[in-house]
Amino acid sequence: MSGARRGRTAAMRAGGRRARMWLTPGMGVKRWLVLFVLCTLIGAVGFLHFTWTGPLHFVATRWILWLNALTEPNIMPLYGVGMAVMALALGGAFLSIVMLNRSMLRSTGTAPENALDVIYSNRTLSRGPRIVAVGGGTGLSNLLSGLKVHTANITAVVTVADDGGSSGRLRESLDMIAPGDLTDCYAALSDSPVLARLLLHRFGRGEGLEGHTFGNLLLATLSEEQGGLQGAMRDIHEVLRVRGQVFPATTRPATIITRLSDGREVRGESELSRQVGQARVIDVRLDPPDLPALPAVLEAIREAELIVLGPGSLFTSILPALLVPDIARAVRESGTPVVYVASLMTEPGETTGLSLEDHVNAITEHLGRAPNWVLTNSTPIPPDVQARYAAEGAQVLDLRGASPDLRDRVRTAPLLQAGQTARHDPAALAQALLAMIAWMRSAA
């Protein structure tokens, strides 16, 4: 197939997809299309009555005689000519409305295709399930990118205790919360592919810029201008065109303190993997401990249909967000089901030697509430991928040795992303969570 033909085929498919989006239930379009057609037909009948019975009778007569002449070669019956004229008139009317809307949108600086996405998001996705996702890192951003196709009622509660890399440098220089995981989540939920790409751009050169991402610098700028990110939240969501909401677990800088089985305490997330050695993580806490949470986060937890923990690093992504006292209290007091999305592999240093039940028990002990459900992957991880991870000290996290109580709470789904890495597939993970919500609704 030639490049031009492939381009035309792709354009036709895109056009068909956008046409189906216009006709999606809840868009508020079909009813007005039906009304437009009915009014046009009634208007045509009224105009015909006026011309046939009024002073323009001779015009109607000449028009009908001219149309009748078209049927002399028996091309079509008389009523067929009338139907063809009506179809052409309706098509022209539709075309005029479309072009008028395009002209009006372009005069305001809005691309017509973007307007459709906004309407679709506001009308259809705004009725999707209310989901709160807690965590950080790549796992949470992958989950958000899968969920945003199905619902705009997403609230991401992101850990901000990272003290390494670009986040650590900005945090130390500006005394701000770590922006790295926030940037990833904003990029995942942004409705603008261009903005999402720019947010994740990492500078490879430039004194003071090398190693920083554009998104981290943007959040640092807004934080500096507003005296903290709390005052800039609304501006951030509007500028980045975020589908849903992304909030830090707390608006104050916090440090993770990890207690190990050999009695040592490790201060800082970046130090954990380097200092854990042969010891195991016993628990983690935040310094300072009495950190505030945003009211919007607590409201989202109270109104959620499902609270999702993970996927992500247990001690450095999931638990730090849950250690903010107000968030932990809101989750404990909420009647909303909590599902823990289990990691596919253990993490060298951080969770080496821990079983799935150990992960669940750690969440229960730190949160004060056990997850209602545990979602695990059912797709076998290829042996060569397992071998590569094993060389780094990571093992598959599965149900071996799990208690009957845990097995009763486990739900499985094919969640493995195709490729040479052990990662969750965003679309499959979103579908599994939506299926759980549908099941819980039907059981209620």
Write the layout of secondary structure elements.
Layout: H1 3-22, H2 30-53, H3 57-70, H4 78-107, H5 112-123, E1 131-135, H6 137-147, E2 154-158, H7 165-174, H8 180-189, H9 193-199, H10 214-226, H11 233-239, E3 245-248, E4 255-260, E5 265-267, H12 269-275, E6 281-287, H13 295-303, E7 306-309, H14 314-322, H15 325-333, E8 338-341, H16 356-367, E9 373-377, H17 383-391, H18 404-409, E10 410-413, H19 426-443
Parallel strand pairs: 1-2, 1-7, 2-3, 7-8, 8-9, 9-10
Antiparallel strand pairs: 4-5, 4-6
Helix pairs in contact: 2-3, 6-8, 6-19, 7-10, 8-9, 13-15, 14-16
The proportion of residues in beta strands is 5-15%
Distance between the termini: 52 Å
The CATH topology name of the largest domain reads Rossmann fold
Q: Provide the number of structural domains.
A: 2
CATH architecture of the largest domain: 3-Layer(aba) Sandwich
The largest sheet, given as strand count, sense and whether it forms a barrel, is: 7 strands, parallel
- Stretches where pLDDT falls below 50 for ≥5 residues? none
Structural class: alpha/beta
Helix content: 40-55%
Protein name: Putative gluconeogenesis factor
InterPro entries: CofD (IPR002882), CofD-like_dom_sf (IPR038136), Gluconeogen_factor (IPR010119)
Organism: Deinococcus aerius
Function: Required for morphogenesis under gluconeogenic growth conditions.
